[in-house]
Amino acid sequence: MTPVTSPPHGHAAAAGANGAPGADGLDPEAVSAFQAAFDTAVAADERIEPRDWMPDAYRSTLVRQIAQHAHSEIIGMQPEANWIARAPSLRRKAILMAKVQDEAGHGLYLYGAAETLGTSREELLDKLHAGRQKYSSIFNYPTLTWADVGAIGWLVDGAAITNQVPLCRCSYGPYARAMVRICKEESFHQRQGYELLLALTRGTEAQRAMAQDAVDRWWWPSLMMFGPPDDESAHSAQSMAWKIKRHSNDELRQRFVDICVPQAEALGLTLPDPDLRWNEERGHWDFGAIDWREFREVLKGNGPCNEQRLEQRRRAHENGAWVREAAAAHAAKQSARASQDGASRTARSEP
Length: 351
Ligand SMILES: [Fe+2]
Ligand SMILES: [Fe+2]
Fold this sequence. Notes:
By secondary structure, the chain is an all-alpha fold. It contains 14 helices and 2 strands. The protein has helices at 12-15, 28-43, 56-75, 77-81, 90-115, 121-129, 147-164, 173-201, 205-224, 236-241, 249-267, 292-302, 306-319, 321-349; strands at residues 277-279, 284-286. Helix 3 (56-75) packs antiparallel against helix 5 and helix 5 packs antiparallel against helix 8 (173-201). The chain is globular and about 80 Å long. Residues 1-5 and 10-23 have low confidence and may be disordered. One fe (ii) ion binds at residues 103, 157, 160, 186, 189.
């Protein structure tokens, strides 16, 4: 990865040091000019691009966030993949397979976005496998019945969209652009989950009960997906100032609850919260207290499936080693052939 060498686009004149070494090699005056150009670009809602100068903390915050997001996409394939072989019809199986493949694709775009910040995919995967980087705690819950596939689509992908739509306007260009396509696909995921639950709630009494049970188990963990309350969220304020984040955790959580309540009603399902009521004054749904102890425990690695998920991920990585080797060998052969062809073309065209 080339070190970052220029100020945010359109502000080169302000710093006047195009082609300078990274921030470490710059004198303090140049750094403050770069910083000023960066601040101006962020304030003007311009995108920061990979070759632009950026503060080290901005870069490391993005790497942490994008890596965690990428890991969540690929770990998130596991709970649902559990049901591919047991999908109740060919149609449901095809839909679920497409969805799980989409999640692999999301991981790919996001690892690609992280690579533009100077980290390699191998490094990030190593950290995930060593338990040094996190993924969303929601994927440490088990998928016990077929209805869980519906509840995940409706609630987990639904929460993901609520979180991710504002990221399409994130200040870092490659991340923002990856999110545009991801959000379109997440919206399909959310609809398929809703439609699956609708089919169950219109089915037999046992199917309706299965849908209700799944929603009972996934509702609270979905609310936890937005992260800790604003007053306990360590990174929120700085991320908002950098326009990586556009809304606070509590704001997004409220938005999600407001969206879900009428949808639950339309499904004929009850959200498992006795404190849920419309607050005329606020113009929002009030909801009960979240069990943050449970959230912290799952985050610490003590959720029902933490070990299983990581073990499965490590195994998949080891089993895929031969594919990576073959792909690398193929790429090396192709580029050797291309440079050989190029050399012989040059030789032919010489007088
Ligand atoms: Fe996804
Ligand atoms: Fe999804």
